Structures are given as C-alpha cells and as structure tokens.
Amino acid sequence: MERRTIGAGALAVGAVGLGCMPMSWAYNGSRQRGDESVRAVHKALDLGVTLLDTADMYGPFTNELLLGRVLKERRAEAFVSTKVGLLVGDQHIVANGRPGYVKRACDASLRRLQTDVIDLYQLHRADPEIPVEETWGAMAELVQAGKVRALGLCAVGARGGRRSGARLHDATLRQLQRVQQVFPVSAVEAELSVWSPEALDALLPWCEARGVGFLAAMPLGNGFLTGTLTPGEGFEPDDLRARHPRFTAEMMAANQPIVAGLRRVARRQGEGVTAAQVALAWVLARGRHVVPVPGTKQCRWAAENAGAADVRLTAEDLAELGRLPAAQGSWD
C-alpha cells in the first residue's frame, strides 16, 4: 500500500488506516465479537494498513486490550494511535486533563496495548478546568520519557463549544495555536467525508501549511456512504446512530442521492469498485498529508477499505462528487 507521512517527524503509515472503535464501542453492541475483530486487525495489517486508531475510553479500556492481543505478535508492523482525556461514567463522559492523570493513563494504555511505546498519543478532548498547555506539557514529557513518539489533537466535536456564527473548527484552531507553542503537533484527527466536508474550510489548510498530518475520522459517514444501510431499518439503542439526526428514516431517505452519486463514480472506475471505496478515495485526494481512518470490525470491510488506496479518481470524478447535494439533517 502507498505510504503517507504524519507530521514533521515523517512518521510513515499506510495511506488508509483502521478505526478500531466499532469493535468495542458505539456501534451495534450485540454484533461485537472479539475474535472476529482480532481477525479484522490481522487482515488490515496483512494488506498494509498500519495505522490502528483506538482510545482508552472505547469500551472503556476493552478496545486497547483487544488491540494488545494483536500487537503482542505484530507490534513492528503497526503504527499505534491512542487517545487520552476522557473518562466514561454511568451515562456520562467527562474530560480529565490533569497532568498526573495523563501520565498514569499513558502507563495504563501501554500495559493494555502490550507495547513499550505509543506512536501517536492524542488528546481526545481538552479539560475546560485545566489550561490545555498544562495537559499538553504533560504529554510532551511522555515523549521525552520515550513512552510516546508524537502528539496529536482530536477536533472539538460538532456539538461542542460551537457559538452562533462561528465556523465549526474555530475552537480546535484556537487550541492548536496554543499547544503548538508548547510542543509540536504531529497530527489532527477530525471528521471529514463527502457528506461532512467542513474541515476543508480552515482545519485542513492549517495542517497542510504546517506539515501536520490529518487523520480523517468517519470518512464513510458512520457507514451511510457505504450504501449498505437501509432507511427505516433502525439501530440498537446503544448505537450512536440511533440518536444522530442524519440517521432518522426520513433523513436517510433524503440523503440517498449522495450514495447514488458515489455509485455512479464507482461504476466508471470499473468492476468491483464500491461506493465506500470512492468515498475513501475522495478523502485520499484531499492531500498527501491526509489519512482516512474508516472503522470496522469485520475482515471483509477491512479488505474493501484497504482497496480504496488503489482507486484513482479523475478530475471528472472529483467534479461530480463536488456537485453532490449537501447532507440533510445536522446537529445544528
């Protein structure tokens, strides 16, 4: 697989990553199978997908434990990205950016992942009660201690801290400007897809101008852009899409023209190319510093996602995708 680099340190990864969250968190809990997920990680590594993206809160903790089963055997082949800063309680999630906690959490993640170093340690969310510079400084000390190779920041969510009239990523850009003064940012992770292109406005250019890698989260639109979801089919209560305004039966039906456009381009690409692969190829075409991180827990989808690295969209394809209608239904 094509290799791409993250940050000024030129950390090399496969062009397509693997989001591990669905294996343990947020999607169809009844369908999560540890052994099947482990096979999916092995399959991804076999195909050159090296960036494995997880977090201590996924599960919580069980996602890192699952990855540890693979890393115990294949650590040299993987680029491990995990996150810190969020604690999961009973029906709530809170931020914790206290320096002492960050260092303890890193040690715990290392044990669960069965490794002695984390390639990319990301701040999941800034703690509103702790200056982000203090949290970032503690993370920088982990780099100096040899426990972490590089640092990254996850974008503030679409519903978090957005003011009237503000661009979606204004809060994230302010955080980036602050932490960059303490220790270099190697990567930013934020949502980017055909139906959520907002990062193109300011966040992606900020990263490109500074040699910062961009990890595109949810590049398949939480599964919608694969074209495999049926409007009105419903979701399990613990599935995040059960509460997402774009996943009501009405909005899923209204947004079908987006999937239809992806399928048209896929047909032009040739036999076997899927709508999902076109959606990932669109993300890959945003720049050499961009790495899509589609999530899955099944071997078949891991293989299909990896195949997107071989899809080359033409100028005509990109123009057609650029004319697709905006997604209906949003958090705002």
Distance between the termini: 38 Å
Indicate the multimeric state.
single chain
**Overall helicity:** 25-40%
Biggest sheet architecture: 8 strands, parallel
- Mean pLDDT, nearest integer? 92
Instruction: Give the class from helix and strand content and strand pairing.
Output: alpha/beta
Shape: globular
Topology as a string of helices (H) and strands (E): EEEHEHEEEHEHEHEHEHHHEHH
Description:
This protein is of the alpha/beta class and 332 residues long. It is 36% helix and 16% strand. It has an 8-stranded parallel beta sheet with strand order 3-4-5-8-9-10-11-12. Helix 1 (34-46) packs parallel to helix 10, helix 3 (99-113) packs across helix 4 (132-144) and helix 8 (256-269) packs across helix 9 (275-284). The radius of gyration is 19 Å and the shape is globular. It starts with a strand and ends in a 10-residue tail after the last helix.
Q: Which features characterize this protein?
A:
332 residues, alpha/beta, eight-stranded parallel sheet, two-stranded antiparallel ribbon
Helix and strand arrangement:
Elements (H helix, E strand, L loop, with lengths): L2 E4 L4 E4 L3 E2 L14 H13 L4 E3 L8 H13 L4 E6 L1 E4 L2 E4 L3 H15 L4 E6 L8 H13 L3 E7 L15 H10 L7 E5 L11 H8 L2 E5 L31 H6 L1 H14 L5 H10 L5 E4 L5 H9 L7 H8 L10
Parallel strand pairs: 3-4, 4-5, 5-8, 8-9, 9-10, 10-11, 11-12
Antiparallel strand pairs: 1-2, 6-7
Helix pairs in contact: 1-2, 1-10, 2-3, 3-4, 8-9
